[in-house]
Amino acid sequence: MGQGTYTGLATILAEELDADWKHVRVEGAAADAKRYNNTLWGPTQGTGGSTAMANSWDQMRQAGATGRAMLVTAAAKRWNVGVADIAVCEGIVSHAGSARKASFGELALDAAKETVPTEVKLKDPRDFRLIGKQARRTDSAAKTNGTAQFTQDVFLPGMLVAVVAHPPQFGATVKSFDASRAKAVKGVVDVVQIPQGVAVLAKDTWSAKKGRDALSVNWDDSKAFKLGTDEILARYREMARKPGLIARQTGDTGKAFAGAARVVSASFDFPYLAHAAMEPMNCVVQLKADGCEVWNGEQSQTVDQGRLAEFFGLKPEQVKINMLYAGGSFGRRASSQSDYVLEAAHIVKAINGRSSVTPPVKLIWLREDDMRGGYYRPLFHHALEAALDGSGKLVGWRHRLVGQSIIAGTPFTAMLVKDGIDQVSVEGAANLPYAIPNLTVDLHTPTDIGVPVLWWRSVGSSHTAYSTEVFLDQVAVAMGKDPVALRLELLSEHPRHAGVLKLASEKAHWGTPLKAAAGERRGRGVAVHESFNSFVAQVAEVTVKKDGSIKVERVVCAVDCGTAINPDNIRSQVEGAVGFALSAALSGEITLKGGRVEQGNFDSYPLLRIGDMPKVEVHIVPSTSAPTGIGEPGVPPLAPAVANAIAAATGKFLHRMPFNTAELVA
Amino acid sequence: MIKLTINGKVHQLDVAPDTPLLWALRDTLHMTGTKYGCGQALCGACNVLVDGTPVRSCVTPVSAMVGRKIRTIEAVDSERVGKVVQDAWRKLDVVQCGYCQSGGRSSAVGTAQPEPQAKRCRHRQRHVGQPVPLRDLRARPRCHPRSRQGSGLRRSPCPRSLLKTSAAAISCKAAPA
Ligand code: FES
């Protein structure tokens, strides 16, 4: 949610409309699935799965071309000339023969009266003036001078700020609480119990926080989830000893392994991860006589609207959701349970009727609330095995995954859980592109783990790309093959994978020696992965110091995401993805002890610092195919490329994330 | 009542003295350009300039700000360096989600700002307050994760020249290495 979509969608529309880019302004759409349906999701408004450009490409082109046609018809009528003689350029409609011209604004009212044409001609991509060029971001000015409005910035008359004391474990509830000290804090207005905890309402955030600090709450932990991450992982490892539900079966894997001359195996552990968006979750809710109004950096309008309507006993159209800029999300705001939005609604309901006018409430999660609030990327354990035959050929592959389902129990179950297999648990593993004749991918989905989980930028691929691509390098070592050469050999049926792989390795000068300073080890590593219908290969250059600490110096990325609408947006997204993924690889880990989350802020959950950001090069494959995802696909290949570079430098493959650099001490 | 000088204007605020400058700016004055990210001096989203030096406003009580010159994103372009940084930011389309950008920019402006105290530093490090060649600003500071940390530019603070006031100490301690 870097919200380059505000530029991307407008670029597509302005292109076909032949609008003047300088005059383009973009507004966030209010919740209304009839108008703003995500065309890839059925009657649902929302963004996610890197679908923004893919779902809007045809729609926005059609809309732009339709608008242009109506403007041209209106001008032709006004000037009494043929439509064929009219030209449109940068927001000006003109007729050369009579030297007449008019701006879109001058024609808009007339154009709006024209019948909407059913068929319009779209531009030949060769005539694009904005697409593939450098349309400037539409949100730069507001985000540069501090005027961009995020949910945090909403102030309404009489509004109260709510800060909530949440239970220390998932599933714990309030047994009793004493609000007397909290209520004595200047500025605190009210203290109410809600199912999520105890909410302190105040005139401002600081008073609300002080009020919460002064609150004493007894928690009932009888139904709380009390395991630690070590215990969860031990259970998963145990589960991985037995076969799970088959997600993919090709050939006869059992036979391939029975006849193998050599078997390579490895297992991988992936932690829970927090999204840690820079704007912690927050939401403003106002109850009105005829409905409710919400302000939120929305990612999932229809789901939130439906849940709020159900909660307040309203019709969905009585829930007005104002779409604001989102200070990051990485999937967090598309909460399948509308968790923080409903929390704000519960507070409003709890105070409703306490005064003549129910004040609007801004729920603010402090960083600690956000980080301990769950909805993490699920913890996963993977076990892989590869069979090499007598001639050293890779003939068998087994991949077993154990981890919670993100989708089960959500409104997306019908769409994304097939025969008990959550498709997003195995994405990137079940569709492994390599030509391996015998292949089994199976999955265990534990259902007794009470940690809320959610999609986290690149979802299943955030772990499957790592295990598959690092393991493949391990296999390459066993086969004595170069990692790029082996991949290309196995990708003969997948030209787009091969295309980005070749481009990245060529730009990174794959195969040329890397000089290391005395006492240091250096290496290059590669990974390629398809996600959200886009293909990304990355080559990382890494230095490993004596003490095991690592420095990622350079990452060369090759991206094939179809038509590049805004090349600079693509570069930004991929650069951001590299930083995001490197953060996770180096230090991202949410751990639980006795069910309590051990991290709370950026001291215990550090993000990459500016000095650790590698130099990133992004090469975009020229393409005329329809655009595909770009928000997420830059994430999956990064960690495996870095791990493979570390292995090239040290001979050690890292089997857990975040990396345990103690294993790399020389 | 606490008297604060913000962007050249004097404001009288009826807030508790321990209120962090961040929340006074945001909740009392509705100057919302300055953002909350962590509340612990860890991220820099809340950076403002105090006497020209970037300071984490989330851990700086208003009581420590009396008599100081506070400059926020709302007025960052009111003098030359701020304007140049602002223009560079726009020209390069630095922002993505943009949430923490005010803090990043205040940091960059403070870094690029010649400060008298910097000149007195004997340790020859480039640090907060020492001029940065403007060409460095063209090195495409990107939104994530560089400025997600709130620091628009890399800098190594010089502790001895910065540990002068409590506010500066905060900014120094929290500055990323
Ligand atoms: S909010 Fe002040 S440093 Fe993060």
Map the helices and strands.
The complex is a heterodimer of chains A (666) and B (177).
Chain A: H1 5-17, H2 33-36, H3 52-79, E1 86-89, E2 92-95, E3 100-103, H4 104-113, H5 140-144, E4 160-165, E5 173-178, H6 180-183, E6 188-194, E7 197-202, H7 205-214, E8 216-220, H8 229-239, E9 245-250, H9 253-258, E10 262-270, E11 282-288, E12 291-296, H10 301-312, E13 319-323, H11 339-351, E14 361-364, H12 367-372, E15 380-388, E16 394-403, H13 413-416, E17 417-418, E18 421-422, H14 423-426, E19 438-444, H15 461-479, H16 483-490, H17 495-507, E20 521-531, E21 534-544, E22 550-560, H18 567-587, E23 592-593, E24 596-597, E25 615-620, H19 638-650
Parallel strand pairs in A: 4-14, 12-13, 16-19, 22-25
Antiparallel strand pairs in A: 1-2, 2-3, 4-7, 5-8, 6-7, 9-19, 10-15, 11-12, 11-14, 15-16, 17-18, 20-21, 21-22, 23-24
Helix pairs in contact in A: 1-3, 3-4, 10-11, 15-19
Chain B: E1 2-6, E2 9-13, H1 21-28, E3 47-50, E4 53-56, E5 69-71, H2 80-91, H3 101-112, H4 116-119, H5 134-137, H6 159-162, H7 166-174
Parallel strand pairs in B: 1-5
Antiparallel strand pairs in B: 1-2, 3-4, 3-5
Residues 36-39, 41-46, 56, 58 of chain B line the site of FE2/S2 (inorganic) cluster.
